[in-house]
Specification:
19 strands, 16% helix, SH3 type barrels, Fumarylacetoacetate hydrolase, domain 2, five-stranded antiparallel β-sheet, 273 residues, globular, 7 helices
């Protein structure tokens, strides 16, 4: 499977296959539809990749599951103990935005403690339940980049993370889905973030405490994972909340999260109208 993406064309969306500098348009509404149906029929149209209006690759995933405290360097910077099992929380689909869309911050009377988190995201390609290690990896369609935009005061006001992790329009994802046939188990990939051109996170997916296979295998004991499900695997050290003094995103901040062999999401932060 070549790299896939979802593009906005007028008032609709279409899945696309990346071919050099172009995106070949497919007869499917998004990458999720391609994964669910296997339909990769081309329409005969193509658009330049550089100017494409990129939507989230998966527009309406059945599930968005995130893993907390899953990089060894991030565990160290937070002073936490290495977890015995993955910590899971969820997002809702309206948190997702495209790779070049604006991140709409909450109004300043709601929160000013907005943070960045570069993450490798797994996208499931086939239903899987009670998976062995081999079955877990076989169920992975591929990987994309996700910025887990976090509203830290809402995240920490209770023991549950959800409120601070699923603010609408704060989770860029993309730019493409790169197949597991190219990236294997997702290990050994450089992962970085920068704010206004200054590097904030610089790590490698080898720092994962629970690997891609560990996560998919474990989640499949809890629920059936479905094609198009997104699993964010956690963020490395260098988040704003762990800095002295803490650093936060504000109106006009430009955040870039990138992963080797996949690409980058780069988004301007704006206040609501």
């Amino acid at each position: 499977m070549s790299s896939l993406c979802t593009v906005r064309i007028g008032s609709t969306t279409r899945a696309g296959r990346v071919e050099g500098d172009d995106i070949v348009i497919l007869d499917a509404a998004d990458v999720g539809a391609v994964l669910r149906t296997g339909n990769r029929t081309e329409t005969g149209d193509a658009i330049p990749r550089a100017t494409a209006d990129l939507a989230p690759p998966i527009l309406a995933p059945d599930k968005i599951i995130c893993v907390g405290l899953n990089y060894l360097d991030h565990i160290r910077e937070t002073g936490s103990e290495t977890p015995a099992a993955p910590t899971y929380f969820a997002k809702f689909a309206n948190a997702l935005i495209g790779a070049r869309d604006n991140m709409v911050l909450p109004s300043v009377d709601v929160s000013t403690r907005i943070d960045w988190e570069a993450e490798l995201a797994i996208v499931i390609g086939a239903p899987v339940r009670h998976a062995s290690s081999a079955e877990a990896l076989a169920a992975v369609a591929g990987y994309t980049v996700l910025n887990d935009g976090s509203v830290r005061d809402y995240q920490r006001r209770t023991k549950q993370f959800l409120a601070g992790k699923t603010f609408e329009g704060l989770t860029p994802v993309g730019p493409v889905l790169v197949s597991a046939s190219e990236l294997g188990d997702g290990s050994g990939l450089a992962i970085r973030s920068s704010v206004d051109g200054v590097v904030k996170q610089d790590s490698n997916t080898d720092q994962l405490c629970f690997t891609v296979v560990d996560i998919v295998k474990d989640l499949s004991t809890i629920t059936t994972l479905m094609p198009g499900d997104i699993i964010a695997t956690g963020t490395p050290g260098g988040v704003g909340a762990a800095r002295t003094p803490p650093e936060w995103l504000g109106d006009g901040s430009i955040v870039r999260c990138e992963i080797e062999s996949i690409g980058a999401v780069e988004n301007r932060c704006v206040l609501p109208d």
